[in-house]
Amino acid sequence: MYEKTFPNKRFKHTLEFLQKHVSTSETIFDLGVPNPFSKIMETNGYTVKNTTGEDIDNNQTALQNESYTVFTAFEIFEHLLNPYTVLENVKCDKLLISIPLRLWFSSAYRSKTDMWDRHYHEFEDWQLDWLLEKTGWKIIDREKFTHPVKKIGFRPLLRFFTPRYYIVYAEKIKI
């Protein structure tokens, strides 16, 4: 079923992880403009709000002014220069974040045509864990998963065995 309805394994895995931790009665604030995955969330019964394209590194007012019970950032944090202040400004008690992991056999992604489509951070799992801990979040669940590609070569072969994505569910630590 999923192979026909989802453009890739990452979306299938992300939706299953989301459904495991978030009910459709909750309102999601999804960091980033409306995108294919925010549409998948809506199709699966979630109420989703997105940012409008503002530079999140410099302007976190949407995080403070919107009403939401869950914060999501799926493959967004690697594009930010300062994800620390974003996490400090999240005003709900639940979050889900996924990131592409830094791969030893591949350099950081950088678009040659789009100045915003670049990875400033390529995290290792412990780096995201530390960032969450430093900003007052406790990781409840985490998973790593691969993302094979249908190409021939050494790197595509490594993608069958090397985890490419890391997804976490965390809750705000009550002080």
UniProtKB/TrEMBL annotation:
Gene3D superfamilies: Vaccinia Virus protein VP39
SUPFAM superfamilies in the record: S-adenosyl-L-methionine-dependent methyltransferases
InterPro entries listed in its UniProt record: SAM-dependent_MTases_sf (IPR029063)
Protein name (record): Methyltransferase
